[in-house]
Amino acid sequence: MECQREENLAVCNCTYEPCDKKGSCCRCIAYHKRLGELPACLFPDDVEKTYDRSIERFCSLHNK
To answer: What is the pLDDT of residue 13?
Structure first.
């Protein structure tokens, strides 16, 4: 399957500007998985801006 990078960029909410993985979801997911994190797209914009991409933070948003 060919990467749809331009379409992905249109919906990517990542605010980390020097990121070279924006729009390349498979690379982004693999990168964050190695760090024990989740990608920005799984967080609301206000939480994404904190750069806390931890699984714990994600769970805290959904265990209310």
So the answer is: 96
